[in-house]
Amino acid sequence: MHPRTFRFAVVAALAPTAQAWQGLARRAENLGYSTLLAPDTMNTLEPFTALAAAATATETLRVGTFVLPAPFYPPSEIVWRALALDLLSGGRLDLGLGAGRPGAEAEVVHRERRFGTPAERVKQLSDALHMVKEEMAAAADGHSPLKPAQRPHPPILVAAAGRKMFQLAAAEADIITLGLPPGTTEDGLAAKVAELRTIAGSRFDDLELNYNIAGVGTDLPAFLSREMGVDPDELIRDGAPSILTGTTQEMADKLRRRRDELGISYIAVNGMFLEKLAPVVELLAGT
Fold first, then answer.
1. Confidence at 43, pLDDT banded by 50, 70, 90
2. Do residues 116 and 90 lie in contact, with contact meaning Cβ atoms separated by under 8 Å?
3. Residue 22: enclosing H or E segment and its boundaries?
4. Which of 150, 161, 175, 287 could anchor a disulfide with 179, C-beta 3.0 to 4.6 Å?
5. Residue closest to 63 by CA, chosen among 52, 73, 72
Protein backbone atom coordinates (compact mmCIF):
# COMPACT_ATOMS: atom_id res chain seq x y z
CA MET A 1 0.00 0.00 0.00
CA HIS A 2 1.24 3.51 -0.77
CA PRO A 3 1.83 5.45 2.50
CA ARG A 4 -0.96 7.72 3.62
CA THR A 5 -0.35 11.44 3.45
CA PHE A 6 0.48 13.20 6.69
CA ARG A 7 -2.02 15.16 8.67
CA PHE A 8 -1.60 16.86 12.04
CA ALA A 9 -3.86 17.66 14.98
CA VAL A 10 -3.66 19.92 18.02
CA VAL A 11 -4.91 18.55 21.35
CA ALA A 12 -6.28 21.41 23.47
CA ALA A 13 -8.54 21.55 26.49
CA LEU A 14 -8.67 25.01 28.05
CA ALA A 15 -8.61 28.71 27.24
CA PRO A 16 -9.11 31.81 29.41
CA THR A 17 -11.80 33.27 27.14
CA ALA A 18 -14.00 32.32 24.21
CA GLN A 19 -11.97 34.67 22.04
CA ALA A 20 -8.73 32.93 23.02
CA TRP A 21 -10.22 29.51 22.29
CA GLN A 22 -11.47 30.50 18.88
CA GLY A 23 -8.17 32.28 18.19
CA LEU A 24 -6.33 29.02 18.93
CA ALA A 25 -8.57 27.19 16.47
CA ARG A 26 -7.95 29.78 13.76
CA ARG A 27 -4.20 29.71 14.42
CA ALA A 28 -4.15 25.91 14.09
CA GLU A 29 -6.05 26.14 10.81
CA ASN A 30 -3.73 28.83 9.45
CA LEU A 31 -0.64 26.80 10.36
CA GLY A 32 -1.86 23.79 8.37
CA TYR A 33 -3.13 21.55 11.16
CA SER A 34 -6.06 19.46 9.99
CA THR A 35 -7.87 18.90 13.29
CA LEU A 36 -8.52 20.33 16.74
CA LEU A 37 -8.97 17.52 19.25
CA ALA A 38 -10.58 18.05 22.68
CA PRO A 39 -10.28 15.60 25.58
CA ASP A 40 -13.18 14.77 27.89
CA THR A 41 -12.38 15.38 31.57
CA MET A 42 -14.12 17.13 34.44
CA ASN A 43 -11.33 19.72 34.61
CA THR A 44 -11.41 20.86 30.98
CA LEU A 45 -13.88 22.40 28.57
CA GLU A 46 -16.87 20.21 27.76
CA PRO A 47 -15.78 18.85 24.37
CA PHE A 48 -18.92 19.21 22.26
CA THR A 49 -19.43 22.82 23.37
CA ALA A 50 -15.76 23.67 22.84
CA LEU A 51 -15.58 22.03 19.43
CA ALA A 52 -18.77 23.71 18.24
CA ALA A 53 -17.26 27.08 19.17
CA ALA A 54 -14.06 26.19 17.32
CA ALA A 55 -15.96 25.06 14.24
CA THR A 56 -17.87 28.33 13.99
CA ALA A 57 -14.57 30.26 14.01
CA THR A 58 -12.92 28.23 11.24
CA GLU A 59 -13.65 27.06 7.71
CA THR A 60 -11.69 23.87 7.04
CA LEU A 61 -10.40 22.75 10.44
CA ARG A 62 -11.83 19.42 11.51
CA VAL A 63 -12.87 18.95 15.14
CA GLY A 64 -12.74 15.76 17.17
CA THR A 65 -13.37 14.28 20.59
CA PHE A 66 -10.20 12.76 22.02
CA VAL A 67 -11.86 10.74 23.38
CA LEU A 68 -15.32 10.33 24.87
CA PRO A 69 -15.18 7.59 27.53
CA ALA A 70 -18.09 5.27 26.73
CA PRO A 71 -18.85 4.66 30.45
CA PHE A 72 -19.64 8.39 30.85
CA TYR A 73 -22.57 8.45 28.43
CA PRO A 74 -25.69 6.57 27.39
CA PRO A 75 -25.00 5.56 23.76
CA SER A 76 -28.08 7.44 22.54
CA GLU A 77 -26.67 10.68 24.00
CA ILE A 78 -23.41 10.20 22.08
CA VAL A 79 -25.41 9.82 18.86
CA TRP A 80 -27.52 12.91 19.57
CA ARG A 81 -24.55 15.13 20.38
CA ALA A 82 -22.49 13.83 17.47
CA LEU A 83 -25.33 14.38 15.00
CA ALA A 84 -25.64 17.99 16.13
CA LEU A 85 -21.91 18.71 15.97
CA ASP A 86 -21.47 17.01 12.60
CA LEU A 87 -24.31 19.13 11.22
CA LEU A 88 -23.18 22.42 12.78
CA SER A 89 -19.54 21.91 11.76
CA GLY A 90 -20.54 21.30 8.16
CA GLY A 91 -19.32 17.71 8.23
CA ARG A 92 -16.00 18.31 9.96
CA LEU A 93 -16.41 15.98 12.96
CA ASP A 94 -14.19 13.03 13.83
CA LEU A 95 -15.94 11.14 16.64
CA GLY A 96 -13.39 9.75 19.09
CA LEU A 97 -14.47 7.10 21.59
CA GLY A 98 -12.71 4.98 24.19
CA ALA A 99 -13.30 2.63 27.11
CA GLY A 100 -12.05 5.06 29.76
CA ARG A 101 -8.58 6.45 30.32
CA PRO A 102 -6.53 5.95 33.51
CA GLY A 103 -7.98 8.20 36.20
CA ALA A 104 -11.44 8.37 34.64
CA GLU A 105 -12.88 6.19 37.41
CA ALA A 106 -12.54 9.11 39.83
CA GLU A 107 -14.61 11.32 37.51
CA VAL A 108 -17.40 9.02 36.41
CA VAL A 109 -19.14 9.30 39.80
CA HIS A 110 -19.79 12.97 39.02
CA ARG A 111 -21.68 11.87 35.94
CA GLU A 112 -23.83 9.53 38.04
CA ARG A 113 -22.57 6.61 36.00
CA ARG A 114 -20.79 3.39 36.93
CA PHE A 115 -17.20 2.68 35.89
CA GLY A 116 -17.22 -1.06 35.35
CA THR A 117 -14.53 -3.68 34.96
CA PRO A 118 -12.26 -3.53 31.90
CA ALA A 119 -14.35 -6.19 30.19
CA GLU A 120 -17.58 -4.34 30.97
CA ARG A 121 -16.17 -1.07 29.63
CA VAL A 122 -15.03 -2.69 26.39
CA LYS A 123 -18.58 -4.04 26.04
CA GLN A 124 -19.99 -0.56 26.69
CA LEU A 125 -17.72 0.86 24.00
CA SER A 126 -18.71 -1.88 21.56
CA ASP A 127 -22.39 -1.18 22.19
CA ALA A 128 -21.83 2.56 21.72
CA LEU A 129 -19.97 2.05 18.45
CA HIS A 130 -22.72 -0.14 17.05
CA MET A 131 -25.45 2.28 18.12
CA VAL A 132 -23.61 5.26 16.63
CA LYS A 133 -23.34 3.50 13.29
CA GLU A 134 -26.87 2.15 13.28
CA GLU A 135 -28.63 5.33 14.43
CA MET A 136 -26.56 7.64 12.24
CA ALA A 137 -27.31 5.48 9.20
CA ALA A 138 -30.99 5.43 10.14
CA ALA A 139 -31.00 9.22 10.56
CA ALA A 140 -29.30 9.67 7.19
CA ASP A 141 -31.87 7.54 5.40
CA GLY A 142 -34.95 8.25 7.51
CA HIS A 143 -37.45 11.05 8.00
CA SER A 144 -35.71 12.75 10.93
CA PRO A 145 -34.77 16.38 10.18
CA LEU A 146 -31.53 15.85 12.14
CA LYS A 147 -29.17 14.15 9.72
CA PRO A 148 -25.40 13.62 9.68
CA ALA A 149 -23.52 15.81 7.23
CA GLN A 150 -21.08 12.94 6.63
CA ARG A 151 -22.61 9.73 5.32
CA PRO A 152 -23.29 7.27 6.70
CA HIS A 153 -21.58 8.71 9.83
CA PRO A 154 -18.55 10.82 10.81
CA PRO A 155 -15.18 9.04 10.83
CA ILE A 156 -14.82 7.10 14.07
CA LEU A 157 -11.60 7.23 16.07
CA VAL A 158 -10.98 4.67 18.81
CA ALA A 159 -8.24 4.88 21.42
CA ALA A 160 -6.68 1.45 21.92
CA ALA A 161 -3.58 -0.21 23.33
CA GLY A 162 -4.40 -3.73 24.53
CA ARG A 163 -5.42 -6.82 22.59
CA LYS A 164 -9.18 -6.63 23.31
CA MET A 165 -9.30 -2.97 22.36
CA PHE A 166 -7.23 -3.60 19.23
CA GLN A 167 -9.71 -6.29 18.20
CA LEU A 168 -12.65 -3.95 18.64
CA ALA A 169 -10.94 -0.95 17.06
CA ALA A 170 -9.68 -2.96 14.08
CA ALA A 171 -13.22 -4.13 13.38
CA GLU A 172 -15.10 -0.86 13.94
CA ALA A 173 -12.83 2.20 13.69
CA ASP A 174 -11.72 4.37 10.81
CA ILE A 175 -8.88 5.87 12.88
CA ILE A 176 -6.99 4.25 15.75
CA THR A 177 -5.06 6.35 18.21
CA LEU A 178 -2.36 4.33 19.93
CA GLY A 179 -3.02 4.98 23.60
CA LEU A 180 0.44 4.04 24.85
CA PRO A 181 2.28 5.31 27.95
CA PRO A 182 4.66 8.24 27.33
CA GLY A 183 7.62 6.05 28.24
CA THR A 184 6.97 3.63 25.37
CA THR A 185 10.18 3.19 23.38
CA GLU A 186 10.57 3.14 19.61
CA ASP A 187 10.82 -0.66 19.79
CA GLY A 188 7.73 -0.79 22.00
CA LEU A 189 5.79 1.36 19.54
CA ALA A 190 6.86 -0.86 16.65
CA ALA A 191 5.83 -3.97 18.60
CA LYS A 192 2.37 -2.54 19.29
CA VAL A 193 1.83 -1.65 15.65
CA ALA A 194 2.95 -5.15 14.67
CA GLU A 195 0.41 -6.58 17.12
CA LEU A 196 -2.33 -4.40 15.65
CA ARG A 197 -1.31 -5.38 12.13
CA THR A 198 -1.69 -9.06 13.01
CA ILE A 199 -5.06 -8.53 14.66
CA ALA A 200 -6.44 -6.29 11.91
CA GLY A 201 -5.31 -8.52 9.06
CA SER A 202 -6.59 -7.29 5.71
CA ARG A 203 -8.26 -4.28 7.39
CA PHE A 204 -4.94 -2.83 8.55
CA ASP A 205 -4.44 -0.79 5.38
CA ASP A 206 -7.90 0.75 5.79
CA LEU A 207 -7.01 2.16 9.22
CA GLU A 208 -5.49 5.59 9.78
CA LEU A 209 -3.02 5.39 12.67
CA ASN A 210 -2.69 8.30 15.07
CA TYR A 211 0.06 8.91 17.63
CA ASN A 212 0.15 11.67 20.23
CA ILE A 213 3.30 13.76 20.72
CA ALA A 214 3.41 15.04 24.32
CA GLY A 215 6.33 17.41 23.87
CA VAL A 216 8.47 19.04 21.18
CA GLY A 217 12.10 20.02 21.73
CA THR A 218 14.33 19.75 24.78
CA ASP A 219 13.26 22.95 26.57
CA LEU A 220 10.14 21.54 28.19
CA PRO A 221 8.08 23.12 31.00
CA ALA A 222 8.51 21.56 34.44
CA PHE A 223 4.79 20.86 34.87
CA LEU A 224 4.84 18.52 31.89
CA SER A 225 6.35 15.85 34.13
CA ARG A 226 3.25 16.01 36.36
CA GLU A 227 0.94 15.68 33.37
CA MET A 228 2.87 12.74 31.95
CA GLY A 229 3.78 11.04 35.20
CA VAL A 230 7.39 10.68 34.08
CA ASP A 231 10.42 12.94 33.73
CA PRO A 232 10.53 14.30 30.15
CA ASP A 233 14.33 14.52 30.33
CA GLU A 234 14.39 10.77 30.89
CA LEU A 235 12.20 10.25 27.84
CA ILE A 236 14.53 12.43 25.78
CA ARG A 237 17.55 10.41 26.92
CA ASP A 238 15.76 7.19 26.03
CA GLY A 239 14.64 8.52 22.65
CA ALA A 240 10.96 7.89 23.45
CA PRO A 241 8.77 8.80 20.45
CA SER A 242 6.36 10.74 22.71
CA ILE A 243 8.93 13.58 22.75
CA LEU A 244 9.98 14.89 19.34
CA THR A 245 13.43 16.52 19.25
CA GLY A 246 15.96 17.76 16.72
CA THR A 247 15.98 20.27 13.90
CA THR A 248 12.91 20.69 11.74
CA GLN A 249 14.44 18.36 9.17
CA GLU A 250 15.44 15.78 11.79
CA MET A 251 11.95 15.78 13.31
CA ALA A 252 10.39 15.47 9.87
CA ASP A 253 12.70 12.56 9.05
CA LYS A 254 11.68 10.75 12.26
CA LEU A 255 8.00 11.11 11.40
CA ARG A 256 8.58 9.99 7.82
CA ARG A 257 10.40 6.89 9.03
CA ARG A 258 7.55 6.02 11.43
CA ARG A 259 5.03 6.58 8.65
CA ASP A 260 6.95 4.48 6.14
CA GLU A 261 7.83 1.66 8.56
CA LEU A 262 4.80 1.61 10.88
CA GLY A 263 2.04 3.36 8.96
CA ILE A 264 1.62 6.22 11.48
CA SER A 265 0.57 9.19 9.36
CA TYR A 266 -1.70 11.17 11.70
CA ILE A 267 0.23 13.08 14.35
CA ALA A 268 -1.40 14.84 17.30
CA VAL A 269 0.52 17.29 19.48
CA ASN A 270 -0.09 18.87 22.86
CA GLY A 271 -1.51 22.34 22.23
CA MET A 272 1.28 24.10 24.11
CA PHE A 273 3.63 22.99 21.31
CA LEU A 274 1.41 24.23 18.48
CA GLU A 275 3.99 26.75 17.30
CA LYS A 276 7.04 24.56 17.87
CA LEU A 277 5.74 21.84 15.61
CA ALA A 278 4.45 24.27 12.97
CA PRO A 279 7.61 24.15 10.78
CA VAL A 280 7.32 20.36 10.62
CA VAL A 281 3.62 20.64 9.77
CA GLU A 282 4.47 23.05 6.97
CA LEU A 283 7.05 20.60 5.64
CA LEU A 284 5.00 17.41 5.85
CA ALA A 285 1.24 18.09 5.88
CA GLY A 286 -0.39 16.60 2.81
CA THR A 287 2.76 14.82 1.63
1. confident
2. no
3. helix 18-30
4. 161
5. 52
Residue 243 pLDDT exceeds 70: yes
Backbone φ and ψ for 92, nearest 5 degrees, come out as -115, 20
Alpha-carbon distance of 11 to 213, in angstroms, equals: 10
Instruction: Give the relative orientation of helices 186-200 and 163-172 as an angle to the nearest 10 degrees.
Output: 50
pLDDT at position 115 is 77
Give the domain ranges of the chain. Answer: 7-284
- Residue 215 is which amino acid? G
Give per-residue pLDDT as tens, 103-153: 666 666 666 677 789 899 999 999 999 999 999 999 988 877 888 999 999
Class of the domain covering 7-284: alpha beta
Q: Determine the Cα–Cα distance for residues 51 and 55; give it in Å rounded to an integer.
A: 6
Does the CA dihedral 189-240-230-224 come out positive or negative?
Answer: negative
Please report which residue ranges of 35-172 form alpha helices under DSSP H: 47-56, 75-88, 105-108, 118-141, 163-172
CB 235 within 8 A of CB 242: yes
